[in-house]
Amino acid sequence: MTIAALNSNPAPAILPGSGGLRGALSDLLWRKPSLLLLLMLLPPILWLGIVYIGSLFALLLQSFFSIDEFSGLINREFTLKTYGDLLQAANLDIILRTVTMAALVTLASAVIAFPIAYYATRYARGRWKALFYLGVMLPLWSSYLVKIYAWKLILAKEGILTWLLAKLHLLWLLDAWLSLPIVGGNSLSVSYTGTFIVFVYVWLPFMILPVQAALERVPGNLVEASSDLGASPGQTFRNVLFPLALPGIVAGSIFTFSLTLGDYIIPQIIGTSRLFIGQAVYSQQGTAGNIPLAAAFTVVPIVIMGFYLWGAKRMGAFDAL
Amino acid sequence: MRSDRGQSAPPGLKIAAAGGLLFLHLPILLIFVYAFTTEEKSFVWPPPGLTTQWFAVTWNRPDVWEALSLSVRVAAISTAVAMVLGTLCAAAVSRTRFFGRETISLLVILPIALPGIITGIALRSAFSLAEIPFSFWTIVLGHATFCVVVVYNNAVARFRRTSGSMIEASMDLGADGFQTFRHVVLPNIATALLAGGMLAFALSFDEVIVTTFTAGQQQTLPIWMLEELIRPRQRPVTNVVAMVVVLVTLLPILAAYYLTRDGDQIAGSGK
């Protein structure tokens, strides 16, 4: 067989090149990769830029408007008066309450997440590893409202938790907890404790995944070397595991912190009547009709998260995402 | 080969890990029991009796069907938009290095990195400034924006693993850009796109925070449920809907997991 024969009979896997306009366009894009890049980037940038960034600017703009206290109409002139309103004691209270809650929720999530993530990376193999992964993914993706609803069922006065504690003769413990000043209340479903539990429950998977990703990168022999050199398990945790897992914890805390800052549904359904930032935003823009103040309120989590992300980036948390 | 295989975990760690997983799963399982309870007025435990009558009652509720249909339509269109935008973005970011590349990834991630209420109220104030009335499309606009990131993440991970030399080989063999895309690129990223699309669908189907700001008077299924949580009308119907929602979101998640599983294991084995 000669080369010429081979050439005259090309393998059918090679498709005939298309000529005409399509071919010319294809050639053009190959010769000018920057044009292809532009064409690929244009739709997403237009969408996100106009719809999202545009909206954010509209929001920011509104925070510099003010509301006329007599007519209730929005006065479209530049003013810092709305930000002045934000600094009233009642509003500062709301901000402080939300940030404290976000910090506590983040801390608790990290404590609960670490053993799960550590077990999944170091001890779970094969089938178990998949099971652990799904065991975190399924609650993460389950319906947010259903999860809150489940906790309403659990924490209700006639619900399963009271029943369980009664069976264990531990009701006095619950009553003692509920009689405490700040964290207590009439029942768990109308107390800060309830809000806290539900926040931790709903955001926990967001903490487990990045911590696990960070721990996956810690070679097992580092832990062994540490114990060979005479460190106790506690010392190994403090000096080896924890520092290496920290970027993962910080990455997870971005989610738990930010999600808690902006949530208005959980404290509304399970919690006291005192407001969180999200609820304040919602009621200001809805019933009160004060969109400028609502807009100014949303700037608070944006600024807090801005600093948070900046700090997280410095700690290398984004590599663990 | 790592030397720590076969070691068993300290009992304290086992208990903490098992306890954490139980904490994540028991509340959801509880929903399944409540869907069958005979109790109508309260959340009493244990249920006084079990019945399946609430499934029939829910089936005959037109408001549930309307909410479900709106949710499915919104999720389908948003997913389609997000898949196009997310794939384009992922292709651009992973194929080439260009000025502002980091900014693009940040731009994509921002809608879920910032609290949902900010996205929601930002869209709402933009609609009111531009005097756009609430409609089906205002909901889609919001949903597609935060669904892009899910598709993007899946596609970027896959692009990173497919080698660029395959595209060059295809071109060397005489295929033009469109043929290369159709016969080389697409088969490589198809399962990642499908997985991303399913997750985007689940995300949109379940979204409530942004939707409350962009829906006006329309009710998606999550908004219907939120209404029931705040002002309960018929609790057993809510129980049944909650159970169905858990089952419906379960399927795309499991499917997405099986679609991306093999690749992830290959990627993980290099560590």
TrEMBL record, chain A:
Chain segments annotated as coiled-coil in the UniProt record: none
Membrane-topology descriptor: Multi-pass membrane protein
Major place of residence: membrane
Key word Transmembrane helix present: yes
InterPro entries: MetI-like, MetI-like_sf
Pfam families: BPD_transp_1 (PF00528)
PROSITE patterns recorded: ABC_TM1 (PS50928)
GO terms classed as biological process: transmembrane transport
Domain annotation ABC transmembrane type-1: ranges: 95-309
Statement: the UniProt record of this protein carries the keyword Transmembrane helix: yes
Listed SUPFAM superfamilies: MetI-like (SSF161098)
Transmembrane segments: 35-61, 94-119, 131-154, 160-178, 190-209, 244-266, 287-311
Keywords: Cell membrane, Membrane, Transmembrane, Transmembrane helix, Transport
Subcellular location per the Swiss-Prot or TrEMBL entry: Cell membrane
Gene Ontology cellular component list: plasma membrane
Annotated family: Belongs to the binding-protein-dependent transport system permease family. CysTW subfamily.
The protein's name in its UniProt record: Putative spermidine/putrescine transport system permease protein
UniProtKB/TrEMBL annotation, chain B:
Source species, domain of life: Bacteria
UniProt keyword terms in alphabetical order: Cell membrane, Membrane, Transmembrane, Transmembrane helix, Transport
GO CC term, one of those recorded: plasma membrane
GO biological process: transmembrane transport
Pfam families found in the cross-reference section: BPD_transp_1
InterPro entries: Bact_Polyamine_Transport, MetI-like, MetI-like_sf
Residue stretches spanning the membrane: 12-36, 70-92, 104-123, 135-156, 240-259
Membrane topology of the entry: Multi-pass membrane protein
Span of domain ABC transmembrane type-1: 68-256
Compartments where found: Cell membrane
CDD domains: TM_PBP2
Keyword Transport: yes
PANTHER family per record: PUTRESCINE TRANSPORT SYSTEM PERMEASE PROTEIN POTI (PTHR43848:SF2)
Family: Belongs to the binding-protein-dependent transport system permease family. CysTW subfamily.
Name this protein carries in UniProt: Putative spermidine/putrescine transport system permease protein
Organism of origin: Mesorhizobium tianshanense
